[in-house]
C-alpha cells in the first residue's frame, strides 16, 4: 500500500482537493503540480529532496485526481483546475512562489498566471501540455468513446490504465510505483473519474493562452525528457523559443514521466534553476 498521503484539504467549486507540505514553514515556497493521468505521487522523491534543501514544498492532487474528490458531474477541465490552483495559492497566502509543473499541470500553472494573474517567482515547466496539437491517438479515441470505455469490466479497465501509465516511462516503473499511480482510478468511482477527465480534455484551454507566451516576464526553464514518446522533445524546443529568456534543459534517458524516470537529473536541473540569481 502506498504511504503517500495528503493531510490537508480545501473545499472548492470542483470538490475538496487534497494538499500537503514539506520542509520548514519559513522556507522559500515551491509548489509542485502533477499532470494526467497521474497524481502528486509523481513528486514523492522530488518533494522531500527539495525540502531537505531548505524549501517549503507544497503538493496537491488536482480536482478528480489522486486523493481529491471524485463524483459524477464534476468539472475537472483545465479551466477549472486553473481556477482551483489560483484559489489554492490564495489559501496558502503565497504571492510569488516558485512553481514546478508537469504535463497538464503546465497548462494549469500557465492559465493561473496568464488568466488569473497568479504571480510566480520562477516557473519550471516539465514536459508540459502547452502547445497545439496535443493528445495521442489513444487519448482521442477514449475521449470520443468515453461511454463505451466506462462500461469495461473493472479488471480490463485496470489493465488498460496500467499499460497507459506505464507507457509514459522510458525506464519502466517499479511495480509499487505503478500501482500507486493506478490505484486512484480503480473501482467504480475511480473508473468513471478516469474517463471523465479525458472526456473534458479540450485543446481550447491551451489555445486560449498560447498566444500570450511571448508576453511572459519571469524566469522560466523548460525541462524535457529526451525520450518522451507522449510529447516529443521538439515541442520543448518550440515552447522555449516562444517564452522570452526561457532555457531548455534536456533530461537524458527520461520519458514523459521525468520526475520518476530521472528524479536525480530533474532535481539537479530544478535546484540550479531555483538558486539562480
TrEMBL record:
<protein>
    <submittedName>
        <fullName>Alpha/beta hydrolase</fullName>
    </submittedName>
</protein>
<dbReference type="Pfam" id="PF00561">
    <property type="entry name" value="Abhydrolase_1"/>
</dbReference>
<dbReference type="InterPro" id="IPR000639">
    <property type="entry name" value="Epox_hydrolase-like"/>
</dbReference>
<keyword id="KW-0378">Hydrolase</keyword>
<dbReference type="InterPro" id="IPR000073">
    <property type="entry name" value="AB_hydrolase_1"/>
</dbReference>
<feature type="domain" description="AB hydrolase-1">
    <location>
        <begin position="29"/>
        <end position="263"/>
    </location>
</feature>
<dbReference type="GO" id="GO:0016787">
    <property type="term" value="F:hydrolase activity"/>
</dbReference>
<dbReference type="InterPro" id="IPR050266">
    <property type="entry name" value="AB_hydrolase_sf"/>
</dbReference>
<dbReference type="InterPro" id="IPR029058">
    <property type="entry name" value="AB_hydrolase_fold"/>
</dbReference>
